[in-house]
Amino acid sequence: MASNAPGLLNRLGQSLWLDNITRDLLESGTLKRYVDELSITGLTSNPTIFDNAISRHDWYDAEIHKQLDAGTSGEALFFNLAIQDLGRAADLFLPIYQRSGTVDGFVSLEVSPLLAYDTKATVVQARALHARANRPNLFIKIPGTAEGLPAIEDSIFAGVPINVTLLFSTEQYMAAADATLKGLERRVAAGLSADVRSVASVFVSRWDVAVTASVPAELRNTLGMAVGGQAYKAYRDIHESERFQRLANAGARAQRLLFASTGTKDKAASDTLYVAGLAAPNTVNTMPEDTLLALADHGVPPHALPRDGGDAEAVLAAHVKAGIDLTALAARLQSDGAKSFVKSWTELLGAIGAKNKVAA
User: Fold this and answer.
1) Active-site residue flag, 141
2) Catalytic pick from 141, 233, 343, 357?
3) Is the model's pTM score more than 0.90?
């Protein structure tokens, strides 16, 4: 029996984005159907998604062979493919972008994961990719690592819309928000428009995977949502602060909080766990295709996450009592996430190279 949970979440004020992009989704009309029927209003991508699409399917083979024949290869070839797909997706979401007053309807393209710890190169590539894509509703994803923070600030100052990725804790989120605000403040001081859009992506499910063997049964699958709830309170606090209000008076819009990694990893838990538990107004939930379809099939009507994050602090305290060092784990999750994307990036470029060998 179909559920109207996607539409109800949308009416609650949460944007539902698809955490997937493939040429088949575009050409089959499936993405458009998700927009029309399942309230999808944007999407995100990452190296792992593109690696799976290119290495496991033949959707890109003809275009890859065409570009290889023209002398394009490696990273340059990949960005050509990604910009083709994300440009088409951005065009599909453009009416939503316009209808929402340019708040919603975004797609995201990641800088090379090899640049996660190179500030200057990240800024250069972010500006170049956004200019090449030439779409107002395209975010460039920059990881919220220590080296990424100044790149985020400089990119916002340069007017590039940014999706800050690989955030795992409220502290990491607040550092990314601060970098964004600094970039906007520099724009105001320079007499530039303060209206540069961004989102901050906090990853949730990986927390529970990391601690499932170390906590009592009653705490399993609760840490990710507690981190999300705590980050939501911080998000609300930041945008009610005098600092942000000064920027809002100059034309700035809030950097929206985005809940990422919201597919349930524990097969014994609800497959819509992180959607139902993080139904927060004025945020984004970007979800895998399987999670979206589960939500549409049997998702329950949402209950809004309280302004104060609900029981987040109590759940976090219970994990600390159980021996979990939350600060150290957040740092490890961010480092592991960056390494995972580098691995996918290397495999992605290898898959593109393998297509050349097949063609030969």
Assistant:
1) yes
2) 141
3) yes
